Amino acid sequence: MALLQIAEPGQSTAPHQTKRAVGIDLGTTHSLVASVRSGQAETLVDANGQAILPSVVSYQTDEILTGYPAVAQSEIDPVNTIVSVKRFMGRSLADVQARGQKFPYQFCETENGLVAFDTPQGKINAIETSSHLLTTLRQRAEHSLGGDIDGAVITVPAYFDDAQRQATKDAAQLAGLKVLRLINEPTAAAVAYGLDSGDEGVIVVYDLGGGTFDVSVLRLQKGIFEVLATGGDSALGGDDFDQLLVDDFITQAGLNSGQLSQADLRHLANAARRVKEQLSDLASVAVSLKLSTGEYQLEVSRQHFEQLIEPLVRKTLRASKRALKDASISPDEILQVVMVGGSTRVPKVRADVAALFGKAPLTSIDPDKVVALGAALQADVLVGNKNADDMLLLDVIPLSLGLETMGGLVEKVIPRNSTIPIAKAQEFTTFKDGQTAMMIHVLQGERELVDDCRSLARFTLRDIPPLAAGAAHIRVTFQVDADGLLSVSAMEKSTGVSAAIDVKPSYGLSEDEITQMIKSSITHAKEDMTARMLAEQRVEAERVLEALDVAIAADGDKLLSCDERDGLLAGMAELKQVAQGQDDKAIELAIERVNKLSEVFAARRMDVSIRSALAGHKVDEV
Amino acid sequence: MDNYFELFGLPEQYSLDQTALTNTFRDLQKSVHPDQFVSQGEQAQRLAVQQSAQINDAFQTLKVPLKRAQYMLQLAGIDLQAEQHTLRDSAFLMQQMEWREHLEALKQAEDLDGLEQFSDTIAAAQKQLNDKIAQALDAGQHHQDAPTWANEVRKLSFMNKLMVEIAQAEDALDY
To answer: A560 near B57, Cβ under 8 Å?
Structure first.
């Protein structure tokens, strides 16, 4: 049922009704939700007028707190108050322990090794914690916009790998949000700035947040935001600046971290953040620390702070240079440098970035809000409120995808900075007579050795027809969709038999686990699961029927034979009827039947639209 | 529309109008990108992802000179990307070995200026070969004598790889 919406001149495709769409910046230190209202993107505020929701969740025996009330718990109950949960997304317990950083939490792991926290609310994994933040934002948006949310665009760091993206999408699903698209944070920021200024040219986005660093080079032309290259570090941000200050405090006070309690460490971290923020305006800051070992008065100068963070800032500049090189852009071709993320308030960061690119960076849009605002603008387009012809984002995959080959080496299948969506096929052959199964290990990263890359998943291909060694040719297709997420399909070429694939994500949850989590989640405890499934299928049915009505009215005469048309109309009538019933499975099957009936029609329309694009016409002129 | 040149409405030639290519790419993506089909159900998404991915692949293939040459030979019946075939041109093999040894020596000596000069030398050789290939492919010579031109394209591919290695060596010294 892939159809283009083609409107008669001067007529809209459907009764015009503004849909409720939001953009959500799910940040390491804080999160925001924004929406477009009367043509303007704006952040939505809570009952106290606050736009920022600190990304902190506190698990108490009788309640789950998010945002400021959770922050208040962070020093009282550090063990059960999760700060910067984004750093744990798509990560295993082993990953977290390997980094050697100290955390006050009671760590445990899910069945497949994902990191989780032991709390008075039970075992909670990072996806669930993120979903609690997203639920708070969803409820805020429903309240502000006056009804259910039709869809959300969620932002992720450009440098997030597949597991981290999938975890984010799962968290949104768990929070009851329909994800229109995951978009990259720097791209969202470019949208906010690009649409604001209307200038065309190369834009560099330098995005240093609480826990992640991204740099993206984009070309903006005729409403198309084309990402040329991206780079970064998904574990480098303002939190690391804070950690350096904490270590410095401990040294200055003549302590060692072993003497300090969890509450002390949280107190130090909070103090470090305040000192860092004050040093943006002051040359020197006095700090008094009340720890279990006593009280301490310290002094930190901006110069000293800058020395501490120098190596980290240099790391970001190196990644920026590399991204420029990958994009084949020289500094004098850059139209604008855009600063995003709270950490770009640090004067040294601004000065060093200006020196690198040879021009003063733009900071006219609040660096804390710009990502959410850009996401809201994109959500408005995707949900159909705004003409999609006005704006299109073409993003890239940040890290190469590869396969394990003999000797623990990685062979790249899709190189980094490839425009998505992208599909690449690779052929494999059997090496034993009668071999019917094969294992494929997919990795992400730039290094040559398997051990240096990130394991994404292991696939077992089964049901390969038993043939002589080397006779079976299995064509495996790797596809990365517009969200940056990987999927894999396989087929034996000589027989045309598609091989079954069992996916075992290395750092993710299976479909079943997600469904199970939704069922048992606190968010949906009061909701009837069946009612939700029924509602979802009805919405999908409506969507399918509406798009088909429009398509048949426009192209039915030209592109369908009488028989095809009658068959399709009969299928649609059936779907219309089934959708009024109570059986969600029956609706799903009826949708599938209609999809099957309309497949050829959809493909023909896609061809027509490609041809008309070639002819230089707009689709609605055909 | 399986032929990438046809997909972009361009003549099957090595020399091509990069501006027209880029503009057509944008127009095509505007008409098939999955973002245009978000509200139209899952099947629409799937089809759009496939179409959009094919257009991205076609664009990259036509945009990058080496890939374009490889693609034109593929259309003429020689699949250069999947092959295990090695080059049988002893003069070029000698040259190749000399270049490799030179690169190793520069790396050992951490000679950044030398690397830059070497990069210029290879770039010049690359351009010369590229021009030669352009002329031949535009004249359709690869249809008469595919093996010869496949060999020339293999050489170009080798030079590209060498350029990447020189750049990596420069980066390693630069930081």
So the answer is: no
Residue A46 is which amino acid? D
Along the 175 residues of chain B, how does pLDDT read in single tens digits?
479 999 898 999 999 999 999 999 998 998 899 998 887 777 888 889 999 999 999 999 999 999 999 999 889 888 776 655 666 778 888 898 899 999 999 989 888 899 999 999 999 999 999 999 999 999 888 888 888 888 899 899 889 989 988 988 887 776 5
Give start and end residues of each alpha helix (H) in A438-583.
511-520, 529-559, 562-578
Any idea where the domains of chain B sit in the sequence?
4-63, 90-173
Residue appearing with tokens 């590399």: A322
Domain B90-173 has CATH 1.20.1280.20: yes
| Phi, psi for A241 (deg, rounded to 5) | -60, -45
Burial of A567 (0-12, 13-18, 19+ CB in 10 A): middle
* CB-based contact, A222 to chain B, within 8 Å: yes
Can you tell me the distance from the alpha carbon of A551 to that of A433, in angstroms, rounded to the nearest whole number? Answer: 51
Integer distance in angstroms from the first to the last C-alpha of chain B?
47
- Region of A247 please: left (phi>0), alpha (psi -120 to 50) or beta: alpha
∠B65-A395-A150 over CA atoms, to 5°?
A: 150
Instruction: Say if residues A276 and A245 touch (Cβ distance below 8 Å).
Output: yes
**From the list B51, B57, B171, which residue is nearest A606 (CB)?**
B51
Continuous H helices in chain B:
4-7, 18-32, 42-63, 65-75, 90-109, 112-138, 141-144, 146-174
Tokens 């034996």 -> residue: A492
Does domain B4-63 fall into CATH 1.10.287.110?
yes
| Strands annotated E in A406-446 | 409-414, 422-429, 438-444
Candidates A606, A607, A619: best to mutate against B (most CBs of B within 10 A) is: A606
